[in-house]
Design goal:
Elements lengths: L1 E8 L6 H12 L6 E6 L5 E7 L12 E2 L5 E9 L2 H10 L9 H12 L9 E9 L4 E6 L8 E5 L2 E5 L3 H5 L9 H10 L12 E3 L4 E6 L2 E6 L12 H19 L7 E3 L4 H14 L5 E6 L7 H11 L3 E6 L6 H9 L10 H12 L4 E3 L4 H4 L4 H14 L1 H13 L5 H15 L4 H7 L24 H26 L4 E3 L5 H7 L4 H4 L7 H7 L5 H4 L10 H4 L2 H12 L11 H13 L8 H21 L1
Parallel strand pairs: 13-14, 13-16, 14-15, 16-17
Antiparallel strand pairs: 1-3, 1-9, 2-3, 4-5, 5-6, 6-7, 7-11, 8-9, 8-10, 11-12
Helix pairs in contact: 2-3, 6-7, 6-17, 6-19, 7-8, 7-19, 10-16, 12-13, 12-14, 12-16, 14-15, 22-23, 23-24
Length: about 625
């Protein structure tokens, strides 16, 4: 893992050396082992890299130039099939000076042009300057595991692995995109390709852009599509087993030891169990133990490690009494408002693991690829209920009598009725909405049209893969791991696995009885029933008990102050409700404890970001 940044076009006026130092400093945490840059003789292109040494520790320094000087490359990520490509390119007459995957990228581009991207297996953000044409190519991996952002400037374009680079270097105008704030208040994240800044955007997954004298052009080389093949569960299980083993093998490619995150869930458990049995690799495993038993999975993780025979460590963390400024510091790393509280324990886990290793395998992606989220079932139930006349009549009756229902089911029933009445992509908002339209002063943008009705489990899964993964879950893991120079790898999102997932019919992938039926059946081949039968638990944090009472009271008073920047987007009445529900208790028939915490955290993080921006 590394960080990349740079500029193409007319460099900003001023001290170029200072620009290089500031850009480098903004991403140094991503790659503290070494850094380098390339500045073209005509001063029209700047390429910067900060490196975390994982492959070819001695010879993999970046940027890397072609022998004839015709092209220069920097990258952030890992190319798992680089040795295969290297051998193929050597047969084509290419020569290599290093054993790094980055030099292979450069040779592959020179041999095959932009089509080389379709040959890569890995996670990556790449910048290649073609000095013959004067064009800069920026590319991102298929599913958006590694981030890459572009800032449009008068006379040129800046790029970076992190949004904060543009702020630190004074490259962004700082103008806020109102629809991005609306997205955040509705969903808790800003949806790519937009960012919170009007002049900054993300390179989309599976896309490369070229920047030359005519401007910026976008090209898509991959797009997730579900193209099912009718087959039986046994065949699908065999496909999945073969794909996962191949992907895990890919993700073990490194010149340093690799470890694994291990929760109490089946995704990370499958990775370590399959690595042990199929590849004879026993990965050291790490789990965070929390002092709150309701959120602690260390006992289940220890049982998995014992069964697999891995060297296991529980990194006990005290999550109570955290300083609000420490939390704000973590969230500032995202470069824009980010409303997922689990970023806090994710950062704590990464920081603890980094003391032992540079590379860790993660179970992220299993829920998206194999129908793991409860909301997929919610969406499917709503689709069925809204398309069958007898059920629709029953829902009308339930809607009229909801007020008479016990408090314990009134809220989930109300949410289900709202989801059922919604159509197409509006169901995403109904399932995930933090703030209702009438509670905010700015609205988000329309959701993608490719999730139009009938909106059931498949459309919900497609949206999760195309939008939620790159905008939310992968960003959380990338930012929290790179902040401490830890490389997090995700075997469930490797090419072998997501191409198999795209072939699985929904009647095999989805089950009313339990989530991830395919992975649960596969897990029974490797793990005991007491592990495979465990219910899914999110990586959550008890925000309402996280802070000291005094610090919490100060924060609540701050948010209610009339001069807070938050007032531009949330009316006083909404802020009052959010703070009071969080501090004085809430009606569980109206909102869950988790929803109350999420709304408070979103208001807090937005207000903090707006204040720091000023």
């Amino acid at each position: 893992m590394c960080g990349i940044a740079g500029f193409h076009g007319s460099l900003p006026e001023g001290d170029t050396r200072q620009l290089i130092e500031t850009m480098t400093g903004s991403i140094r945490h991503r790659g503290p082992d070494e850094s380098g840059y390339f500045l073209s003789p005509e001063r029209s292109t700047l390429l910067i890299n900060t490196r975390l040494s994982v492959i070819d520790l001695e010879g993999g320094s970046q940027p890397i130039k072609a022998e004839d000087g015709s092209a220069v490359v920097v990258q952030n990520g890992e190319i798992y099939n680089y040795q295969e490509l290297r051998d193929e390119l050597k047969r084509e007459g290419m020569r290599f000076r290093t054993h790094s995957d980055t030099e292979v990228l450069l040779a592959a581009y020179r041999q095959w042009g932009p089509g080389f991207l379709e040959r890569l297996r890995g996670m990556f953000a790449i910048a290649i300057l073609d000095r013959r044409s004067g064009a800069l190519l920026l590319a991102r991996d298929r599913l958006g595991i590694k981030p890459l952002y572009i800032c449009r400037r008068p006379g040129g374009f800046a790029f970076s692995s992190e949004i904060n680079t543009f702020r630190d270097c004074g490259l962004t105008s700082g103008e806020i995109a109102p629809e991005s704030v609306g997205d955040f208040l509705a969903l808790g994240v800003v949806r790519e390709p937009r960012t919170i800044y009007a002049d900054v955007e993300a390179v989309e997954p599976g896309t490369y852009v070229t920047i030359d004298g005519t401007g910026l052009q976008k090209h898509r080389y991959y797009e997730w599509r579900h193209e099912p093949e009718q087959t039986d569960p046994q065949t699908v299980q065999a496909w999945t087993r073969e794909a996962l083993v191949a992907s895990i093998k890919d993700h073990l490619v490194a010149d340093i030891p690799v470890c694994a995150f291990l929760s109490g869930g089946i995704d990370s458990a499958l990775i370590v169990a399959m690595a042990a049995r199929e590849l004879d690799v026993r990965l050291p495993t790490f789990t965070v133990g929390f002092d709150d038993a309701a959120y602690d999975e260390s006992d289940a993780a220890a049982a998995i490690a014992s069964h697999v025979g891995s060297e296991h460590a529980v990194l006990q963390v005290e999550m109570k009494g955290l300083d609000p400024q420490e939390i704000e510091g973590i969230m500032d790393r995202f470069g824009q408002p980010f409303g997922d509280m689990s970023a806090i324990p994710t950062y704590v886990l990464c920081r603890a693991v980094r003391a032992h290793s540079k590379v860790a395998l993660s179970g992220d992606g299993g829920d998206e690829m194999f129908m793991g989220y409860k909301r997929f079932g919610y969406a499917e139930a709503a689709r069925v209920a809204s398309t069958r006349l007898p059920l629709r009549a029953g829902l009308s009756l339930a809607s009229g009598t909801r007020a008479l229902a016990p408090a314990s089911i009134r809220r989930p029933l109300g949410r289900f009725l709202e989801v059922t009445r919604a159509e197409g992509s509006s169901r995403i908002l109904a399932m995930n909405r933090l703030f209702a339209p009438e509670e905010v002063s700015v609205q988000g943008s329309p959701l993608p049209v490719d999730v139009a009705a009938p909106f059931g489990c498949r459309a919900a899964a497609n949206y999760a893969i195309r939008t939620e993964l790159p905008s939310h879950y992968l960003r959380k893991v990338d930012i929290c791991s790179s902040a401490v120079a830890l490389e997090a790898r995700v075997p469930f999102l490797g090419e072998f696995v997501h191409r198999v997932s795209a072939r699985i019919p929904d009647d095999v992938a989805f089950s009313w009885r339990q989530n991830k039926p395919i992975l649960r059946r596969l897990a029974r081949e490797y793990l005991p029933e007491e592990i495979t039968g465990l219910a899914k638990r999110g990586f959550a944090v008890p925000l309402d008990t996280l802070l000291e009472p005094g610090a919490l009271a100060d924060l609540e008073r701050r948010l209610k102050q009339p001069d807070r920047p938050l007032r531009e987007f949330l009316p006083a009445a909404t802020i009052e409700t959010v703070v009071d529900e969080f501090s004085r208790g809430h009606d569980p028939a109206v909102r869950s404890r988790d929803a109350v915490c999420r709304r408070f955290f979103a208001a807090w993080t937005l207000d903090t970001w707006l204040e720091r921006r000023a």
